[in-house]
């Protein structure tokens, strides 16, 4: 029996209901996190400690959705990968430069904006892309490559935007740790599970269980992130409000530029929607530990990072409904 045959082992009306109502469930997770963070600010460190385990489980479940054979095949789609890399590491930095050059903000706030907007998302973008009918399998295949390149490019981009003093501010250790814990380990575990599923039913059950847990894991991730950071946000409302328009403008601009690139390259609807989502969603959940590791003078930075997550989640509700209308599915798409 192949792994694919076991995917529906744990399929149930509850799982189908969760999938149909993902967005309101995610919003409920955000709201619950804010409520808990406000009611129990002393618990922020406990929630921070839960971010990596919960996010790691989410990424493990995500990586399980694409078999290794499809992952390697997607890596050979050079044209799509080149477009994703070009949008994220050429177009996005230019947009970020335009949004931040003429806006005066403290360095701690600017650093938070740069950490988020310069790093493409590799986790829940796959979920939202799928909701919009995009080719989320290719995004999943591109995720390790996106993470590796952003890890290498971020120090250079920060140096270009802020200057060499960031060499003393940003410790790349947390970034390397995040890459190993959140990408390498879940990916290797997913491949091991896939191999087990080819030989034993237990592997199939694990794969099905993790697929069914995608929505709860995403909700749990959003909950712990907001619960851990809400106390910081609530005490820095003035700084947070300054960056909300920047984050909102980024989502709007990247939708328009992404659409232009899709039409230029004549991508089908699946690839086109995937490219737009990749260019718009950012990696705030992964760079948050990097922000948390900054010196005390940058205590505002984590709140700025988390604010982007909140704005982006609200923006994704609009994206899921608007992007399919911008890029219609045609019969030739297959």
Automatic annotation (TrEMBL):
Compartments where found? Cell membrane
User: Which keywords belong to this entry?
Assistant: Cell membrane, Membrane, Transmembrane, Transmembrane helix, Transport
Query: Transmembrane stretches, by residue range?
Result: 23-43, 49-68, 80-103, 109-132, 139-162, 174-193, 205-226, 246-265, 285-306
Q: Provide the Gene Ontology terms for cellular component.
A: plasma membrane
Q: According to the lineage, what is the superkingdom?
A: Bacteria
Show the GO MF annotations.
antimonite transmembrane transporter activity; antiporter activity; arsenite transmembrane transporter activity
Q: How does it sit in the membrane?
A: Multi-pass membrane protein
Endpoints of the signal sequence? none
Member of which family?
Belongs to the arsenical resistance-3 (ACR3) (TC 2.A.59) family.
Q: What is this protein called?
A: Arsenical-resistance protein
Organism, per UniProt?
Mycobacteroides abscessus
């Amino acid at each position: 029996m192949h792994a694919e045959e076991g995917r529906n082992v744990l399929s149930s009306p509850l799982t189908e209901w969760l999938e149909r109502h993902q967005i309101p469930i995610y919003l409920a997770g955000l709201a619950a996190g804010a409520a808990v963070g406000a009611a129990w600010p002393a618990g922020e460190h406990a929630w921070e400690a839960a971010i990596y385990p919960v996010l790691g489980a989410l990424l493990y479940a995500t990586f399980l959705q694409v078999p290794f054979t499809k992952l390697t095949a997607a890596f050979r789609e050079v044209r799509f990968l080149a477009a994703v890399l070009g949008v994220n590491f050429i177009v996005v930095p230019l947009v970020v430069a335009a949004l931040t050059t003429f806006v005066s903000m403290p360095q701690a706030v600017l650093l938070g904006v740069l950490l988020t907007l310069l790093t493409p998302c590799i986790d829940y973008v796959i979920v939202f892309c799928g909701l919009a009918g995009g080719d989320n399998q290719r995004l999943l295949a591109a995720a390790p490559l996106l993470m590796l390149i952003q890890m290498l490019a971020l120090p250079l981009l920060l140096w270009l935007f802020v200057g060499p003093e960031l060499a003393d501010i940003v410790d790349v250790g947390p970034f390397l740790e995040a890459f190993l814990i959140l990408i390498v380990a879940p990916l290797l575990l997913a491949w091991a599970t896939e191999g087990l599923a080819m030989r034993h039913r237990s592997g199939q059950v694990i794969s099905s269980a993790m697929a069914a847990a995608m929505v709860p894991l995403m909700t749990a991730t959003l909950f712990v992130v907001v619960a851990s950071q809400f106390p910081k946000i609530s005490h820095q409302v003035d700084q947070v409000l300054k960056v909300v328009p920047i984050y909102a403008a980024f989502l709007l601009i990247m939708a328009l530029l992404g659409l232009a690139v899709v039409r230029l390259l004549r991508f089908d609807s699946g690839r086109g929607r995937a490219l737009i989502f990749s260019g718009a969603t950012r990696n705030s959940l992964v760079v948050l530990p990097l922000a948390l590791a900054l010196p005390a003078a940058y205590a505002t930075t984590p709140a700025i990072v988390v604010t982007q997550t909140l704005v982006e989640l609200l923006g994704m509700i609009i994206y899921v409904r608007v992007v399919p209308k911008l890029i219609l599915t045609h019969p030739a798409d297959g």
